[in-house]
Amino acid sequence: MKVNGAPTRPIAVASDGWAVEIIDQTRLPHAFVKVRLETLADAERAIRDMWVRGAPLIGATAAYGMALAMRADASEGGLAEAYRRLYATRPTAVNLRWALDDLRGRLGGLAPEARPAAAYARAAAICEEDVAINAAIGRHGLALIRELWERKGRPARLNVLTHCNAGWLATVDWGTATAPIYMAHDAGVPVHVWVDETRPRNQGANLTAWELLNHGVPHTVVVDNTGGHLMQHGMVDLCIVGTDRTTARGDVCNKIGTYLKALAAHDNGVPFYVALPGPTVDWTIEDGLHEIPIEQRDPAEVTRIAGLADGGQLLSVAVTPAGSPAANFGFDVTPARLVTGLITERGVCAASHQGLLSLYPEHR
User: Fold this and answer.
1) Considering 244, 251, 282, 332, which one is annotated as catalytic?
2) I need a labelling partner for 359 at 20 to 30 A (CA). Which of 113, 208, 232, 348 fits?
3) Could you tell me if 346 and 360 are in contact, meaning their C-beta atoms sit under 8 angstroms apart?
């Protein structure tokens, strides 16, 4: 995807060939800032403080974090310590564990002196695999969008609602939920996107809107509680969201508020799709409601909000009374029964064990 006309990815190896550059997403949309990661501690902070976020990008960053760690200490102890510290940063996203398990498995059988180069090579491969996966998700999702547009008589506007940010900023390129949207727009389907603001961190208003604006996709930012009203009045043709973890039976864990959108979609007959790469499926669990750990983040994300003042200064201001406690649940689980279908790199399937196995038979 492009920023100011230039092809851009949210993570890449720096020109020196060993440091890693990321976009500090906490500064968007008001400032476009790249940050240089040089150590394991830098990678930890980037993931924990959400300079990078989104399950696929977290996995890619963790892989490069392992590479940075191996550059400093490629011993058995260094490998174990890097795994432990990176895994503790964001426990909900299954891609984090997947990437760390992959790197640990590959590096464990190598001599310490071979580990740094192997880690960098595998991290780069994970990034390229993610790009290919997301492009495939986009093609399968485009077919759904085009078919719906044709079935509705080619209206002048096809309204898609999305929640949080499952765009290219959450991956290495294209995005998951946004890949079909970008491809539909590029193919001439007149998509318009309702962008949930996604409190408390406003990743829809800050990131998804910024992405769509840069790509020229028509969109409108709405507060989180507007989705049900829009669906009641026929102003949403379909919903597409991403997911940080999907269970073997098709339950999806995504940014807090996704479950409420799925309920509204179900009540109003609006198709509710979830776009995800294969590595986001956690085949070890069935019951998302009781088996997925839900991250509880800093209450300050609820009690304060950041924005750009009229004078151009970035400010953080309080929005709750001093002394009022706040809870900050990062995710919720949408049961498979509320999901119309899962859009993956291998095709579209039902949100069920059998549906997923039809695309990923190697997990039987």
Assistant:
1) 244
2) 208
3) yes
Q: Is the peptide bond before 321 cis (omega within 30 degrees of 0)?
A: no
Q: Is 239 helix (H, G, I), strand (E, B) or coil?
A: strand
User: Among 13, 24, 128, which residue's Cα sits nearest to residue 71?
Assistant: 13
- The string of pLDDT tens digits covering residues 120-132 is 999 999 999 999 9
Contacts of 249 (CB under 8 A, 6+ apart): 286, 287, 336, 352, 353, 356
> Of 184, 187, 206, whose CA–CA distance to 197 is shortest?
206
pTM of the model: 0.91
Q: Where are the alpha helices (DSSP H) in 152-235?
A: 178-186, 203, 209-215, 227-232
Q: Give the separation between CA 287 and CA 354, rounded to whole angstroms.
A: 15
pLDDT at 7: 85
Query: Is the pLDDT reported for residue 3 higher than 90?
Result: no
244 counts as catalytic: yes
At residue 195 the predicted structure's pLDDT band, cuts being 50, 70 and 90, is very high
Distance, CA of 8 to CA of 287 (rounded, Å): 38
Residue with tokens 């795994």: 83
Helices (H) and strands (E) in the chain — how many of each?
A: 13, 18
| Residue corresponding to tokens 């892989």 | 63
Domains of the chain: 2-128 (1.20.120.420), 137-363 (3.40.50.10470)
